[in-house]
């Protein structure tokens, strides 16, 4: 969906597109009025997403809100990507049980640069307004900070769940953490935003932003919250620290393989939050799977293909899809696999497995061989005493289990 300059899709069409995958709109009647005003005046809404560059990599969980910003952009509205280079040095305490260590200016600048390289895989660079909140927060005087603080009550701030629980458990809260929602609220004032996007866990901050805009004589922005994407484990939110993530810079085959590892149940939230398939199409696919008309793996492969294509292009997605089909459905070795060079000579198969880190120990290597989980040159090998003779220039493909492949090359 796209809109030419000064022209927007009809109100109901925009609302239907924006409702997809959202958790909450605060408030929808205000959003409708803003859309109607944009159509009437020809002036696009100013929609922003603020991101603190606290880590260099973006994973699929981060893209849920980015994709919604892209949806506004595609309908002709102004997409603002706000980098919290000032606020990142404070740190949003959302979801943490203790005070965050502050980031240095150098860390923030490095992460911000990497973020921009990645977000333009989703947003249209030529149509995105990139801002940094140090532009205004870094210039606030002490008096202006005090005046900002006077516009909000401490009791309201301590209603925030993470603050409330930390107080109840006698965990410390630093004063600068109380300032975070107020300073980021000033972002909304400086940007004169019509809409702000965020994750459900940021709802408290977003509501503070609305209130502070009103305190400065502005019309309160509309807030759209997006669900937290569940990670590959199907239980906890996607997080690099939990190891259940898919980074958007990962190679296509690796990304595809990770996406195919999620459960059939989790797959539908990925369809909802990470693809452009409409609600009716997703409902039809779910119905076909539940009735046995469509195999869950086929539905999942379509989902994985679509997501990989969005970041790496259709050709790379097709190659990743074909490679997965070859390896896991047709049980053939992948066209490309990691290589390990070993000195020519004879050695025990279990020693090769441990040296190649295909098994953590000799006993585990022996167990895998006895179970028939090891293939050498396409043949299952169950003799744990098997000795391999490797000549210089020989290339010996090996498989351990379903997913581990390696080519041993004689040197």
Write the layout of secondary structure elements.
Layout: H1 11-19, E1 24-26, H2 28-41, E2 46-51, H3 60-74, E3 78-83, H4 105-119, E4 128-132, H5 134-137, H6 142-149, H7 154-157, H8 161-168, H9 175-191, E5 195-199, H10 203-215, E6 222-226, H11 252-260, H12 264-274, H13 279-290, H14 296-312, H15 314-329, E7 339-342, E8 345-348, H16 349-355, H17 362-370, E9 374-376, E10 379-380, E11 387-390, E12 395-400, E13 404-410
Parallel strand pairs: 2-3, 2-5, 3-4, 5-6, 7-13
Antiparallel strand pairs: 1-6, 8-11, 9-10, 9-12, 12-13
Helix pairs in contact: 1-2, 9-10, 11-14, 11-15, 12-14, 14-15, 16-17
Describe this structure in words.
It is a single chain. The model has no long low-confidence stretch (mean pLDDT about 85). α9 packs across α10. This protein has helices spanning about 10-20, 30-40, 60-75, 105-120, 135, 140-150, 155, 160-170, 175-190, 205-215, 250-260, 265-275, 280-290, 295-310, 315-330, 350-355, 360-370; strands spanning about 25, 45-50, 80-85, 130, 195-200, 220-225, 340, 345-350, 375, 380, 385-390, 395-400, 405-410. It has 17 helices and 13 strands. The protein folds into 3 domains: about 10-225, Rossmann fold (3-Layer(aba) Sandwich); about 250-330, Orthogonal Bundle (Tyrosyl-Transfer RNA Synthetase); about 340-410, RNA-binding S4 domain (Structural Genomics Hypothetical 15.5 Kd Protein In mrcA-pckA Intergenic Region, Chain A), CATH 3.10.290.10. β12 (about 395-400) and β13 form a beta hairpin. It has about 400 residues and is of the alpha/beta class.
